[in-house]
């Protein structure tokens, strides 16, 4: 057989499988289209969908099935919102039926107010009616086999008829109640004048950070008339529990204060003095301010209840602790002016007043007054657990101080030292003698027995304590470091935490190491290696937050932002915690070069590419960079200086070496940013001796060379060093106009303070605009300022938006240098093989709400095999962030998707959650997420509008059109040199479409069938020719045997070929016929594949051209 036959054979066999599959698919498609067994569709749909509309659904089931009709709102959120769903079961197969469905929509949907729902804008754009059908097999649901949806015309909700019922709650509250209640009858809730300002304890650090609360007029006309009448004749009451850790460190500390729209203190202010007295201040109807002071020193470490009644011009104050009450009464000269809707209230510290160090307990506010305040402290509450923890800490600190005092007096406290009260039997027996005891220590035997574990650890480091004169601050760090590496012991598939580790963590927390407090809180809340105890977990969370620890504050903010682990969801409280860390992060950025801070470097442990990108001083990449820098390469010098200065890519910080490379790159005078970097180091004296003169000269050169940052630097130099505010403002304005975020922020400060001589007045609106612009570039200090305005709503023209304020501060906190340092330590521990220590440190970072740390903690839990709870706790926490790792989204999406297949009641909701997870992964650029979305779209699932917009698709596009757009985008970002799932799926989709185009013509369909027959003919002929060739080769030796006579050959011509059963002529004719059949088959196949290729190119070329 010739080489031509061989090539044609390979070609035919390669195409046979694809062609047969396409034929079967085409035949199946034609058969389904011709006689569908199951069908569902809309028989009639109104032009506009409203409450009470009726739709008619026509359907037919081939066997018992479940059907449903849904109304979906398209919102600005990433997933669509199902506001109506009606299900029914059809038990009559093979019968065409029509079902009439009455749509009952929430009243809040029909009468829409532009409010917030679940924290996101819910401005509805359109509605989608969709119907679906599921088969029932033995009482269980199986995946959707038929589905159809119809997109209605866009209807603005504000144009819908009717008005909202008067005196009813907001759209968001109504819709939430509608979705969670089986009662669809519209009811207005009871409106109360009693407000729980705090239900859960609040930690206060004694700084300018607290909880902002605003009050709106009553919805009820009757209550609002009473409130307005009480503005000049008030009748109101407050009741709050407080727990003092320290007395006020300033002249006055805020318990609660009221700030009006003019940024002035209004009624009522309750403050704490530095001597422990309470001061109450009020504004009178005459416009004057008046205050009185209670001469009563409040105790520390006790829960104190303050009840304040305001009646016209009289104030009654009851102070209670240890079941004892102290009553104070004061009458002001005139009636008190009290309007709680004017401005905002602050619990604890605010911008204009610091708070106290301690805790707030339950806080109740009676807007229209009360005869009796009911505000009890539950005996089993977190508040009581806080008190127990602090009492235990006082004993621990007393014991440790006594130990350190003994060591300071050079008395070695070894077990054999007579100065130590031993607890053995002989010593107890000897107590009956008349001899004087030799024990000189200041603690009792019982105390030593209680703190036995701590005592033994302190004995172990006694020599170090004595030699280095360690204080309590040093001891707490030693205890924490001793514990971190061994706190989690992996035994089998469980985490075990030794009791000794818990004791040392509690001691470290008592001594002021609040990373230990956070770790204890995590252990008690999660139950990792220790029985869960939610009250203790809450207590240690609050202890860490009150200790002003960045991680503990972020932890509390994250829990309150999402309502996790028993923390109530409260964005105002979350803002209070995050604002503290945001302010610290802004300050930390100016000291980022310090060794305890690192720029967060995001390495996902489950991604080999991330791990391979790491480098260090001994790596080839670093050595090559250093080699290039030594040769004078400017970019290498700058890059090397940056890596050493900030500690990037796994390189340790080396400020001195970094400054050397910054100087060498700057002195080339080629790169303005290099000149600027070195000039700032000179002016700030970081890593080099401060030199204002040289720094200023380099700064001017950098600005002249075009550095925008240098313009801001010149403004800083003129304003801070030269006190030339006029020129400083000009430089800041130039920098801001050219896109410098620092310039925008500094210009905003000048607007806010009015220090610009050319514009000597305060302009908060102009300042806010500059802060807002800078925050969009990620400027930390500007974000903190914008968040304050958004949380208070105190600037005219700026609506209150606490959710946005929290989001801004979360982004700032995630860039904190101390968090970056913890992430770096965790990564180093992982690279060194200390996975248990790495897990502890990743968990500490994960509890702050950092998505990458949560993903890495979950990854380590899985690698260590320590159980389901640990892994899924942090995966579930991770997806609450705006930027979770795509792999986490995919894994949770898989969980929802495969769970939906075996769940009867809520299979659709689980599938929708899977779509949501895959959608978020796809929007984050994950090819796997895009591939999964394409598969779900093929199976009839409706994709969110935001996803369709991302792929330039719409609800009007067919399923294959949506799939093609998704797979095209996926294939673009995958590896072009490999056959990827997306590219293979895209090819299959296009091949299927091309095949359907071929089968639309009878002639082309006939050609396809002929091609299939040709392949069978080809196979048969080639096989027959092979047999003939083998038989011919087998007969060749017999022809070389001794010859017979001429007469014999003449008598039997059929034996001319030896013993073969075919003559030569017959074989020749059969060979010619086979060649002809192969030629015709090849021609037929060539014609078919040419036709198929033509249709395939028609499908692919236009889509490529449009992109």
Question: Could you describe the 3D structure shown?
Answer:
By secondary structure, this protein is an alpha+beta fold. Among the domains are: 39-107 and 124-137 and 147-157, Immunoglobulin-like; 194-378, Jelly Rolls (Sandwich); 381-413 and 444-547, no CATH class; 615-706, Serine Threonine Protein Phosphatase 5, Tetratricopeptide repeat; 905-991, no CATH class; 1001-1021 and 1070-1099. The protein contains 40 helices and 24 strands. The strands form six sheets. Strands 10, 11, 13, 18, 19, 20 and 22 form a seven-stranded antiparallel beta sheet that branches. Strands 12-21-14-15-16-17 form a six-stranded antiparallel beta sheet. Strands 4-3-8-9 form a four-stranded antiparallel beta sheet. The longest helix has 43 residues, at 1064-1106. It is globular, with a radius of gyration of 39 Å. It starts with a helix and ends with a helix.
- What form results from the Cα inertia axes? globular
Instruction: Detail the poorly predicted runs.
Output: 6-36, 75-79, 111-125, 139-187, 414-420, 422-438, 1038-1059, 1102-1107
Pairing-aware structural class of the strands and helices?
A: alpha+beta
Main beta-sheet annotation: 7 strands, antiparallel
Q: What is the typical, i.e. mean, pLDDT?
A: 79
Number of helices: 40
Looking at the overall shape, the CATH architecture of the domain at 194-378 is Sandwich
What is the beta-strand fraction? 5-15%
CATH class designation of the domain at 194-378: Mainly Beta
Termini separation: 47 Å
Question: Count the strands?
Answer: 24
| CATH fold naming of the domain at 194-378 | Jelly Rolls
- Share of residues in helices: 40-55%
Radius of gyration: 39 Å
Signal peptide: 1-29
Organism: Poecilia reticulata
InterPro entries: Sel-1L3, Sel1-like, TPR-like_helical_dom_sf
Region (Disordered): 1035-1058
